[in-house]
Amino acid sequence: MSTKTPSVYERIYVTVREIPYGKVASYGQIARMVGGCTARMVGYAMASVTPEKEVPWHRVINSQGRISPRARTSGELLQKELLEEEGIQLDAEERIDFGTYGWELAPPVGRNS
Predict the structure, then answer these.
(1) Section 97-111 average pLDDT
(2) Cα 61–86–34 angle (5° rounding)?
(3) pTM to 2 decimals?
(4) Rounded to whole angstroms, how far apart are CA atoms 62 and 94?
């Protein structure tokens, strides 16, 4: 019996599914958590999400707290709408405050602070 190693995209999707409702993460944060990939790869993975994958792609934004534009689509308008439906507010410069809305993971159990 052979066990298949999940692809990088599959590992990215698993991680993004963990982002709680009303929170966001950056492409770079997801890349660091997944390991073996870059922020750009996370962006490509988010761009290839289809509805049946049930990945909350809209919760991943760039490191400046902005929605990244998508070529030839109105995806950024949909992303803004979905984030606002979750109570995530953008400031006057269309940025999201990571201090308020950023996904912070709890330290591993047994780890001293």
Answers:
(1) 75
(2) 40
(3) 0.85
(4) 12
